[in-house]
Amino acid sequence: MKSYVEQARPGICAWLEAVRWPDAGWGRWKYNAHMIRPYGLISSGFAIVIHDQLGLLTGITPQQRREAIEFFQSTQDPGDGYFKDPLVKESDRVPEAIHSWEDIWGQMGVAARALELLGAKPLYPMPAASFVDLRDPNVRHVVLGWNWENPWHVGERFYRAVAAYDGRDVESFFRIYEDEIHDPQTGMPTRRGCTDGSVAMAGLFKVMWAYEHAGRPVPDAAAAIDFTLALQHPDGEWGFRNNMCINFDALWVLYRLDRQLKGTHRHADIVAAGNRTAKLLLERYRKTDGGFAFTGKDCWTVHHSIRISDAYPEGDMVGTHMSLHCLAYADEWNGVAALL
After folding, report:
1. Is 0.90 surpassed by the pTM of this model?
2. Which DSSP helix (H) or strand (E) runs through 244?
3. Cα 11 vs. chain centroid, distance in angstroms?
4. How far is CA 60 from the centre of its chain?
């Protein structure tokens, strides 16, 4: 039997080429076939990441590599260091936008990852503290000033603050988190008002970046595994359904916590959960074009408060990227392939 990734690979390769913008040099991709702009910066960055996941970057020509590098480097603002999509305008933000422009540009840092994979670097220094105002020396005031009722939204701020404080006192960040936000009974950031299990787990996903960055073990990992496994539905989907972020976040959390505990806590249950999700993705999330739809039925329509498409039953870049990772986790747990 083919691995899950092998089953998906031919379709993804064909889909990638179908959503590539052919003009102005190699390196620009749409989110999905019917995207309202010719290409996107985030979608292009994720396309490079997917190429790397599938081992395709080794096959591009020197000219293609050069054109892609020039494109990504050209999108960096020399004034503030953010990568900015040249085609995104104020009118592209949805009316109920929850992300600031700093949030939006910060997410486009995937361009820096694309450059790294292409063997290049940003032209200018990148902002060290996007999303975070570090002028306040009172760390507790900074951390508890964020709305932890939605740790999914602010967990990344925690990570970026820890990363920006490198070389200074980061211990206080983890002490405040563990004493006042983290619940040892659930392993989740639920002590300041978060009541939605999906949002709590996705918040832990973001907070865990800080722990990995600092080389610290995640506290109460076994409880967090129990909490996360309880979010899975019998069909393999997770949490509030129809959202690849929750599916991806859940397997990402389980993969890293299982590795931290060296497979000593409910490893067989984790493997079974991964297989259920992989089969779900191949049967429901994979579309006839070979890509994977972010919502299962349709492509993603809004990313970080920017409208990208109407709803179509077709693959999209972030749904495909996340699905590919989930398939790879399941393959590794099954012992049939190394993680991408």
Report:
1. yes
2. helix 244-260
3. 22
4. 25
Phi, psi of 40 (to 5 degrees): -135, 150
Give the other-Cβ count within 10 Å of 154's Cβ: 22
Cβ atoms of 182 and 149 within 8 Å: the answer is no
183 bridge partner residues: 188
Joined tokens for residue 106: 């910060």
**Within 13 A of 240's CA, how many CA atoms are on the CB side?**
10
Closest among 100, 126, 98, 96 to 111, alpha carbons compared = 126
Say how far apart CA 179 and CA 184 lie, in whole Å. Answer: 9
CA distances in angstroms from 317 to 63, 263, 295, 297, 323, listed in the order given = 24, 32, 12, 14, 10
Contacts of 103 (CB under 8 A, 6+ apart): 130, 131, 304, 305
Query: Which residues on adjacent β-strands are paired with residue 93?
Result: 306
Instruction: Tell me the C-alpha distance between 229 and 224, whole Å.
Output: 9
246 phi and psi angles, rounded to 5 deg: -70, -40
Q: How far is CA 68 from the centre of its chain?
A: 22
Q: In whole angstroms, give the CA distance from residue 104 to residue 303.
A: 9
104, 79 Cβ separation under 8 angstroms = no
Tens-digit pLDDT profile for residues 205-251: 999 999 999 999 999 999 999 999 999 999 999 998 889 999 999 99
Cα–Cα distances (Å) from 316 to 97, 108, 118, in that order, read: 21, 17, 22
